[in-house]
Design brief:
The N terminus is likely disordered. This protein has a domain of 106 residues: Serine Threonine Protein Phosphatase 5, Tetratricopeptide repeat, CATH 1.25.40. Helix content is 76%, strand content 0%.
Length: 181
């Protein structure tokens, strides 16, 4: 074997740590790059929505929702529930709210609770509405606090309890929510 072969071999053995660091750095950069691309696609959807281009926003959100992005899943549900950028379909809205809600997305949990409360896209079910509102309330979602407070105030689906209602209304008001969405 030539001297060059052994020099190259010695160099590669001595630099294994450096080579490993380079590999790890490359992997980190690639994974960070893909995360930033996902975030960029979602941000493009938000920009399109704010600009009133609902069809483009829906396309951006749907692409991210299908990859498991809970924010995008909730937004797809909102767009289906309002008929923005897509034909109004409350049953599909509920499907997307549920996907996000099951990942712990508090706004989706509130939206799913509201769907059950109103019977939109699902059969009206006050017990399920209460369960989903409670999950969102546990995370501090102000709209869910208000919505659950209304259930207690009116005695709809729960025993009427003005004390519980007032506590929930105060929590919601402390976050700026003083009326239903």
């Amino acid at each position: 074997m030539s001297l060059e072969f052994w020099r190259a071999r010695a160099y590669s053995v001595n630099n294994k740590g450096e080579n490993m660091r380079r590999i790890v750095l490359c992997l980190l950069l690639i994974s960070g790059f893909s995360v930033s691309l996902v975030q960029a696609d979602y941000q493009d959807g938000l920009k399109a929505f704010k600009a009133g281009d609902f069809e483009q926003a829906f396309k951006e959100f749907l692409a991210e929702a299908e990859k498991g992005n809970a924010d995008a899943q909730n937004d797809v549900g909102v767009m289906y529930s309002l008929g923005r950028g897509v034909v109004l379909d409350r049953a599909k809205a509920v499907q997307w709210f549920r996907k996000a809600a099951e990942q712990g997305h508090d706004s989706a949990q509130n939206n799913l609770g509201k769907s059950y409360f109103k019977g939109q896209g699902v059969s009206r079910d006050y017990d399920m509405a209460k369960q989903w509102y409670e999950k969102a309330v546990e995370q501090g979602n102000a709209q869910a606090q208000y919505n659950l407070g209304l259930m207690y105030y009116d005695g709809v689906g729960v025993a009427q309890d003005f004390s519980k209602a007032m506590v929930l209304f105060r929590k919601a008001a402390d976050q700026g929510i003083t009326k239903p969405e």
